[in-house]
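Researcher: Structure prediction, please.
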Amino acid sequence: MPELSKEQLRNHIKTGSFAPVYLLFGNEAYLRDIAAKTIADRAFGEGELREFNDDRFSLTDPDDIVRALAAAEQLPMMAARRVIRVSDVRVAATNNRDTLKEDALPRLEKYLADPSPSTLLILIADELNGNRKATKLLKQYAATVEFAQLAGRELEEWVRRQFRELGAEADDAAIRFLIATAGSELRRLSNEVKKLTAAAMPEGRVTVEMVEAVVPHSRELSNFDLTDNLIAGRKDKAIKILRKLLDDEAEPLMLLGLLASRYRSLLVAKELMDRGVDRGTVARRAKIFGNGADEVFAAARRTDRSRLATAINKMAAADLAIKTSVGGGGKAGSQMQIEMLVCELAEL
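Model: Predicted structure follows.
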């Protein structure tokens, strides 16, 4: 059977035109598990006795495949369908790691070739080796949907949608910083989005500073380590921190956005502090949050407004250079621009 896209699966769910057997697999377990749950939720109508018709099995006990297939052949009780979910399916490169054993394949093939019309069988696979007989059998008969790990713009758009669904907004810099800080695993990102949305109320605006204050850092070094050394003129340390961040695969444009956001906050704080505005008002207007607030105020006191303004102008020039591939395109060109910028900022 042809592999379905995630959009085609959404259409199945939306219209209720379900296939008799689904095979959901891929590295992004969070989306895969949500898809399985959504299929099961939409399979039952109002008033149907779901508790008698929704069964789950796990192949951590390999014999459960036989029990699952036996349940799939039963007629539903006071409902239009039965739903059978089988998780922890694994077909590895070598059969000693399989949870779907070869001796179960004849029984499985018999069912797949003639599935019960009143049953939805959902197979949820953690691993599928494409060269194995079991994988070929499953893909031959099941509506197969892959849930690959999200990355790049697709991952950023997913995070943006999560914020919007919860009634909040986050700009590109905040979203990139969240991903850089929390990682790309969607289950954790979903939890952090909920925490940030709550922290952003009532305005509903999530900022880089808020991410830095609320989300635990997965990296050893934070953005403030880089900014603090730049403000202090510690060029060697700043470059060392930058290289560490780049080695950790932080994107140059993301780092540039974080630096620009931090310098803008410092400039706002500096101007307000020079006018004698109280600390609480400065913190709110400069968007200074969390345990690092004292360090931000100290950095603002150490520098002057003209230096901060010059730094922000240099960042704007570096942003344009990266986006127009001045000095070379691609990853190498972007890294060269951010390294040049850091050297210039440290010498201001």
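Model: The chain is about 55% helix and 10% strand.
Researcher: Thanks, that helps.
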